[in-house]
Design goal:
Order of helices and strands: HHEEHEEEEH
Strand content: 35-45%
Number of strands: 6
Strand order of the largest sheet: 2-1-6-5-4-3
CATH architecture: Roll
Largest sheet: 6 strands, mixed
Shape: globular
Number of domains: 1
CATH topology: Nuclear Transport Factor 2, Chain: A
Structural class: alpha+beta
Length: 133
């Protein structure tokens, strides 16, 4: 598979909520750089993050557009997150099934047919506003 196909398969698995397939596409030493907080290094920490996200949110990505770089292994993604806030998290508003539509993006690196880095960006203040209504 090409780097672009690997990233597309990763997001397709995310939308299908097929966590095993999604995690099979990431490297054991993946670096996950979230919008807020410290980076997570390693598949175990990334898996724990995904489990927490699955408990608190139900999300589907739509209008996914992937951009490949002239530098091999670098892919950018732009998408819209359609979500439901299922379970509150510390420091965030209480959850009661609020829905949201939020633009977001990510930067990924692929090496040896595995995703080695995922860096995500979204507007947290906008998300808080959307789920606080």
């Amino acid at each position: 598979m090409t780097d672009l196909q690997i990233v597309k398969a990763y997001y397709d698995a995310f939308n299908a909520r097929n966590w095993d397939e999604m995690l099979a596409l990431v490297d054991e030493h993946i670096t996950h750089e979230p919008n807020q907080g410290k980076p997570r290094i390693g598949k175990m920490l990334f898996t724990e993050f995904m489990q927490q996200m699955d408990e608190s949110y139900s999300e589907t990505l739509k209008d996914v557009v992937l951009f490949s770089s002239t530098t091999e292994g670098r892919i950018a993604a732009e998408f819209v997150v359609l979500g439901t806030y299922k379970k509150g998290e510390a420091g965030l508003p209480p959850a009661h099934g609020q829905t949201y539509v939020l633009p977001a993006s990510a930067f990924l690196e692929v090496q040896g047919e595995k995703i080695t880095r995922v860096t995500t960006y979204y507007n947290l203040e906008l998300w808080i506003e959307l789920v606080s209504k």
